[in-house]
Structure formats: structure tokens, C-alpha cells
User: Fold this.
Amino acid sequence: MISHLPILQVIVPLMAAPLCLLLKRAQLVWLFALFASSLACFISILLLQQVMTSGVISYELGGWEAPWGIEYRIDKLNAFLLLIISAISTVVLIAAQTSIEKEIPKDKHTLFYILYLLSLTGMLGIVSTGDAFNVFVFLEISSLSAYALIALGNDRRALWASYQYLIMGTIGATFILIGIGLMYQMTGTLNMEDLSQRLPQVAQTRTVFTAFAFVIVGVCLKLALFPLHLWLPNAYAFAPSIVTAFFAATATKVAIYLLIRFTFTVFGLSFSFTTLPLQGLFLTLGLAGIFVASSAAIYQKNVKHVFAYSSIAQVGYIIIGLSTSTITGLTATLLHLFNHALMKSAIFLALGAVVYRLGSIQLSSFYGLGRQMPLTMAAITIGGLSLIGVPLTVGFVSKWYLLIALIEHGWWPVAVLVLLGSLLAIVYVWRIVEAAYFKEPLAGTMPVKEAPVLFLIPIWTLIIANIYFGIDTRLSVQVAQSAAQSLFGVSP
Amino acid sequence: MTISDFPPGLVLVLGAFLLPIIARKFRPILTLGLPLITLFLVWNLPNGSFSIFPLFDYQLTFVRSDSLSRLFATVFSIMTFGGSLYALKQKRVLELVAVFVYAGSAIGVVLAGDLISLFIFWEIMAVASTLVLLSVGGNISYQVSMRYFLVHVFGGTLLLVGILAHILDTGSTAFTAMELNSLSSILILIGFLINAAAPPLSAWLSDAYPEASFSGAVFLSAFTTKAAVYVLLRGFPGAEILVIIGVFMIFYGIIYALLENDIRRILAYSIVNQVGFMVTGIGIGTEMALNGVAAHAFTHIIYKGLLLMSAGAVIYMTGKRKCTDLGGLFQSMPLTTICAIIGALSISSFPLTSGFISKSMISQAAADESLTAIWFLLMAASAGVFLHAGIKFPWFVFFQKDSGLRPSDPPWSMRLAMLLFAGICIGLGVWPEFLYSMLPYPVNYEPYTVTHVLHMLQLLLFSGFAFFLMLPLMKRTLTITLDADWFYRRLFPSALKNIFSIIWRADKVIRLACLDKLNSGFNFISKKNNRLSGLLSQNHPSGSMAMWVAVVLAIYLLLSFIK
Assistant:
């Protein structure tokens, strides 16, 4: 049983998805999905433990040997990602049933859970597989279910947002497929480990350069790197709240995982960062992303839009950490993957609670909410502080490691720019805090009650995690550090 | 976990959150009791480092207790007590909460033993002091607090980068004296100096403090700048650049205070001026100078608190804040007048007041080091201080013309607070040994020698004379009879006036030009963005999104093939 964990990680949600159809009542489906997701989370914890103690796990699907058959390969990096994805998915699901009651028509509830589990399957699959083509397959599974999930939003603009996401996502996936195809043409293999052995021999050919370019641009589209981010704000803003909370915390993370996997493992560090101009490109786009997206966030009227833009800015920080191409920089990136997932899922869940009570997510509907929904607003405030990077929150830990990486690398001006960028976060978080605590409710609005318990439990679990991992960084830093070290081929 | 492991500042920070919870009538027990508990804890700290916690790979030392940190923590606690007494009539709970967090984090800063915990408290201080300003409410207060916050967060940014780099350079988080030889220490210094209201960002102080409430200003005057003085004293003793910066601040404060009409803005400029004395002393860096700085910070907090209390009392009772609207209040506010005069004499270093025993140490240090030019400048500045804070403030508010206002003295709690601080000012002046025994280095300085006293009296007498001589000028009503006295009645004052007005105008032009550019930049950004589909957040058709993909791919391929 233990030896089959890598495939169980993917199979459990995959099998659970169609089983949902058998259960008629939405409540039951919800409990079942929650169960499947917690099982996946449990498996990912076991996997992480196993990887941390005994190293890389290689699992051969159907008993076919590695370069020929499909290999699932779990190292520290993907075990870490698996944990993030499945844990966030589970916590978010707790609030799902309450939230979708108000946002999704009753007859679509079962469909929602099926899509949710499929999307989870896709993400877990992308992360666990060691086969480049398999990546594409799972990417399509997760993307297709994501388009449908976003289209479930009760705002009519959700359809349009979903359609645009579909177009862009398909372009991205096609680019990745083209890249993989070109690599296959040059090396005759699809296994990532095998590719990394064979690519150096043909590295100086234009085909490989082009393959790399297509893969990188395709992945960057998926992770919403500026200026390829245009699909994201509307997709996040008009999707059902639960979907936003889940995707904001995980979807871009998976794409970043792919970026790391392709640049560090498949193409190799020296090819990605020395032969090719990746460093300059990532740094420029990352910084531009931080400033453009943060300033756009300041002017949004829809609070979901505010945090959607903030997500794009956060991708900027993650990419800047990557662009240093040092162990510390990569540690900062991985750490921020974890930390940002905690912040954003907490914030978007809390926004979901606001939507549940108010039915609106415009900034003006937040007026005076600090007194009516104290726990929810406190959560948004703490989440916002974490986003800014205030000490004793996870945001500070991320910022700290990123700055150390930048200064160590000698990039002083970048460090200052990164900090100034985080000042913009103060502004957009402040607008919401100000609306909730310092403004009087608009005349004619009905007072509302605090969010239901099923919302508060996951929200505050995540908020407490935000603070806990801001103080006790042993787990997150240790895993991120040793994952980064093993990607650099340094034994810890 | 012993009692010394509990950081005293946290008593105030945590206690602050009890304030909104408990019943209104019990609130004074907390606001007066918490500072006393803090004071008790501070005084019972033995030397050494306590309250050590791990954070990431580092150790946080929340309490580093030695005579210097205890001195600052002591005066901060006294200030919190006095200020709370004064603020008993303050109805806004938000301000009280903010003030307590602010005071507690300031104590946290001066007790912090490592750079990380220093930074943590530093940032809490910035946020809490902004809330003190914000709690006033209204549009002006909102804008002021945003400007204030931006300056401080900018300083915090530089400080954080500096601290990180310092930790990477030296491998240690300990907060000890630093050499100014690397970018990291320069950034830290700039971060500190911004909080000390050093140029070119001095303006945040005089911009913000006068807009606080009558009680908020009292607290604001004490903590931010003096915590900055403490960290400079600890981190950069003897850094020569500080002498220049300090002297600049001294004269900046004097010139602007002389030209100002708002009573609390006069006092705000005078804070810059007084901190200038301290910064200069830190730059001189001898034991005598550092002792003088520590002592001066102590006395300054008390007398500046007292002055702002009296100004606050006037504003509280009359609702007016401009020199030109006030005057003649001594008839109905005798106690406030007396307290303001005691504060004014202290700030002017009048013998038998606290200012005399502390400021003279700094100028003595300059003399000891044969820094003749600095000594002269400090002396000239002392005269200037007497002009703007020592005479101008009490004269225009309490005497001068009769404004017709007849407010009574403020409520008993405010009177009591003023009396307490006035008593401390006199007490320290009469018995300097008490303060001297708390200073970081052994003191062998005797303030009350005949030369010192005579010298100071002469200086004060002549500058007082000059003030009344130039009084018409200050009131801007010139009546002149031309004679041989033309030289000192017309030429010198007008020359002075011209010099001042040139400085004033040049400064105004430069600042306005910068502000204008900044403003139009921001306006441009906000005009472009503040629409439903702003510049950066437009909804794009799928085609243009796809175009961006093509553009990025093209750039990328181009770059990789060029190589």
C-alpha cells in the first residue's frame, strides 16, 4: 500500500469524481468530496514524510520501466507542492456547501463537486508525474474543469471570463505541447529525468532553444506573469467564491512548479540561466508585474478584483526569487508558494463569507462591516497584513528570505524596489480596512450577521496558520530549503 | 520565565487592547496604572539580556537592559503616565489604544537588543502613531496621517534593507555601534534619521503633529524622534556626518519656528531644533557629549511635553490655534501660563531648570573637543531657541495684546499633569545629581559654576532684549523713526528678514516644484486608473491577450538567438 502512494495521490480524487454522481443529495456529495480531498491530503503528508527521510520516490505506472513507461517521481519539491494543493483544497471544501448554496443553482451542486475533484486531480497529477506528456494531459484535465467551474459563477460575466480563460489557457497548453513535441523530436524521450540527461547533447540547436521558449511562454501564460496576466482578474472575480479561493491558492502555484521543473530539472540550471536570457526577462517582468498589478489593485471597486490583481503582483515576487538563480532565491520562491497559498485562500474564503451575507463584493458594500462581521473582517485584515509582509505573519517570512536572496546576490536596487512595491499593498489593503472600520454603512442597507460557522472554521484555520508559520518557520523553511538544495544538486 | 523576561513595553501594548473592553469609569485605572507598572518593571531590570525568543534561524532579544536603555525606557514610562493623566478628558478610545501601543512599542525599541526586534517595534510604532493622528477624524487628519505614514514606511523600507544587509555582512543580528563604511550601515542610518526628522524629510513632523488632538500631540512629541535619538546614540556614536546634519536641523527648526503662526507648529519646529542638538551631540561622540544627549533627551521629553500640554490646554479651552488669534490669556489661565513659562525657560536652558543641566553638557563637549565653530553655532542656536520657544510662544499666547478671550484654566486632570511635569522640570534643574546618576557614563560635570550660569544668563538676556527689539517686526507692524538707531532698528532686522525670506522663498520654490511634479505624476496615474476600466485594468479582448503572448514569445526568441 505504502509503495503505491504516488499513484493513489492522483487516483483517489480521480475515482471520487464520477462516484459523486451516485450520491444524490448535495450534502452527501459534499461530505464525500471532503473525505476524498482529506484522504489526498493525508497521502501527501505521508509522501512528504517519506521523501524527507528516505529521498526520491520513483513509481513505475503499470510496472513499465522508467524511460519507456510513465514514471511518477516524487521528490521534495513536488511533495511540498502536493501538500499545499491537497491541504488548501480540503480546508476550502469545508466551506463549500454553505457557499455554493447561495451562488450556484441547486441542480448544479453535484456537478460542482465533480469538477472540483477533477480539477484537484489535474493539479495533483501535473505535480506528481515525471513524464512530460503526462503533464500536458493533466494540465488539460485541470484546465477544462477550471473553465467549467468558473462558468458556474452567477454573474453573467463569468461566462465571458471563462471563455477568455479558455482561449488563453488553450494557447498556453498548446505552446507547452509544441515545446514538448520539439523536445521529443530532438531526444526521442518524454521522461523528464531522461530528457535532462539527453538534452545537453543537443542543447545548442535552434530547435531546443525554440522548444524552451514555447514551454516557458506557455507556462508563464498559465502562471499569469505580466503581461500575460490579462485573463486572470476577471476569471477570479466572477468565479464562485469557493473556486476563487481554491484557484488563487493553487492554480498559479502549479504553473510555477512547472516552470521550476522545466528550468531546473529538464533543461538544467546552466542552460536555462546562462545560455538563455531568462534572468533578465524574469526580473524585468517580475518587477513590472509587481508595480503594474499593485497599482491596478489600488483602483479596483470590486474587492475580488483587488486581490486578483494582488495575486498577479505576488507572482512577480515569486518570479523575482526565481530569477536570482541561487539556492536562497529558490528557497524564497518555494517559501512564498506556501505562504501565498495560505494568505490568498484565507482572504478569498473570507470574501466568500462576505458574498454569502451581502450578495455583493463591491467596496462600498464593505462600509461599516467591521462591526457587523467582526471575525470575518478581522480575518481579512490579518490576511492583508500578511500580504503586506508585517512581522509575525507568513508574509514577513517570505519577504525576509526574498530580500536576503536579493541582497546576497548584490541586487540592492531590486531589494528596495521590492519593498517599495509592498508599500502599494499597504494602500490597497488599507482601502478595505478603512471601508470596513472607518466608514459608516450606506443608508438603506440592512445590517448583516457574522458569517456561518462553516465559513469561520476554515477561514480562521488558515489565518492561524498564517500566524503560526510566521513564527515557527521550521516546517516551511526546512522543506523549501532542502527542496531548493536538491534542485541545485547540493546534498543538504 | 522570571519577571525580567517580560518585556515592559508589552504591558502597554497588550494593555491597550483592554481599554475598549472595560467599562468607561474604570478606564482611568488602566491608563494610569499600566504606565506605573511599566515603570516599575523597567526600574527592576537588572543589567543583561532577557526575553530571548527564536525566530527563523535567529534569536530575538526583546530586553537588553543597561543604563542607557533603562534611562530612555524610564522617561518614556513617565511620559506615558503624565500624558495619560493629561488625556483623561480624551473621549476617543481609538486614540488611547493607539497611544498605548505607540508608547509600548517605543519602549520596545529602546529595550530591543537585536536589529530584528528593533525593526518589529519600529514598524508597530509607525502604525500606531499614524492611528493617533487618524483618530482625530476628518479629511485633513486623513490626509496628514497618510503623508505621515508614507514617510515612515519609506524609512522603514530603507531600514529593513539595511538591517538585512547588515546581518548578511556581519552574520550577527546584535544591535551595537556600527561603522559607517558599508551600504548597509548607511541605509540603517538613513532609516533612523528619517524618524529623527533630519533633512531632507524634516517636514513630516511639523506637517503632522499640529494636526493631532490636544492630547495626541503630547504623546507624539515624545516618542518617535526620541526613539530615533536613542538608536542613533546606540548605533552611530561619533559619526561625524551627524554633526553637520544636527546643526542644520537646529537652524532649520529655529528659522521656521520664528516664521510660524500656529502655536503647536512653532513647538513642532522646535522639536526638530532640539533633536538637532542631540544629533549634533551624537556626532561629537565623546562620553561627555553622549551623556549630554541622553540627559537632554530625558529633559526634552518632559519640557516639550509640558509645552505641548499648555498649548493643548489653550486649544482645548479656546478652540483657537493661531498666535494672531490669541493673547492676553494670562489673566484667566494663570496656572497654564506659569506652566508654559516653566517649560519655556527649560527649553531655553534657564538656570535652575532641567534644560540648563542637560544642554550645557553638549556645548561643553563641543568646547572640550575644540570644535570652536560648532560651539559658536550651538551658542547662537541657544539664543535662537530662547527667541522662538522661550519667548515667542508664551508671549504671543498669554501676553501681548488682549484678544478678549477669557477661558478658564483646563480641567483638574490636565492641570495636574502640567503641574507634575513643571515640577519635574524644576526638580531636575535644582537636583541634577538624580539624572546624572542614571546616565550611561560617569559624569564629572558641574553645571552650576559661576561662569556657566553667568554665561547663560547673559546669552538669554541679550536674546530676550533682541526679541522685544524686533517685536514690531515679528508682529509685522512697522513704525519707524529714522535716526542713528536706523542701523539696529532697520538695517539689521531687515537684513535678517531678507536673509530669512530668501531662505524661505528658495525653500518654498524647491519644495513646491518637487511637490508639484509628484502631485501631477500621481494625478496622472489616478486619472488614468480611477475609472471602471482604467489604464492598467482594462478588459481586453481575447485577441489582444493573444497578441501579448506572441509579443513575449517573439522577444524571448529574439533574445535567445541574439546571444
About this structure: Residues 277-492 of chain A form one domain. Chain A touches chain B through 58 residues (CB under 8 Å).
